[in-house]
Design a protein that fits this description.
154 residues, 0% strand, mainly alpha, 6 helices
């Protein structure tokens, strides 16, 4: 019984975190069709949709859907080389931190895929929580200054 309560609390916290992250993805991804919009914005928008798909899969215990979606997160597209140079130049001495977050995201998404293959709901939720945490930490470190620098938005 205690085990199910813990699992339920993790799931509820995961859904709350995703709701907050989803709002951030939407704010970041707004105007993605704007001529001045960077490719990274579209990538983030797609990642947000994939994270929502995983949440839906967890709620319905659709392990196959999660198994199919996790690689889309782990192997998300990269911005074009010229855009990547602008991003890395802006990030400067924090490049290592930025790459570590990307590596953590990739690893957590792979763990999510493996857990869905078992299928093990508890492992799926734990891997998804790690995935969300890596996204959140990166966003807290980089999103606001990035958006202000490249889009002049506060």
């Amino acid at each position: 019984m205690q085990h199910r309560l813990i699992l339920k609390n993790i799931f509820v916290n995961t859904i709350l975190c995703l709701s907050m992250a989803s709002t951030g993805f939407q704010a970041w991804a707004e105007d993605s069709n704007d001529a001045n919009s960077m490719e990274l914005r579209r990538i983030m928008q797609d990642l947000g949709k994939n994270m929502q798909t995983v949440t839906d899969g967890i709620s319905r215990e659709d392990w196959e859907l999660i198994k199919e979606t996790a690689p889309l997160i782990a192997d998300h597209p990269q911005p074009p080389f010229s855009e990547k140079i602008k991003i890395l130049s802006f990030i400067g001495s924090n490049v290592g931190k930025f790459r570590d977050y990307d590596k953590q995201t990739h690893q957590a998404a792979r763990e999510l895929e493996l857990a869905a293959m078992k299928p093990d709901g508890e492992m799926v939720i734990a891997a998804f929580a790690r995935l969300q945490n890596s996204c959140l930490l990166c966003h807290q470190s980089f999103r606001k200054p990035f958006v202000e620098h490249f889009y002049g938005q506060h």
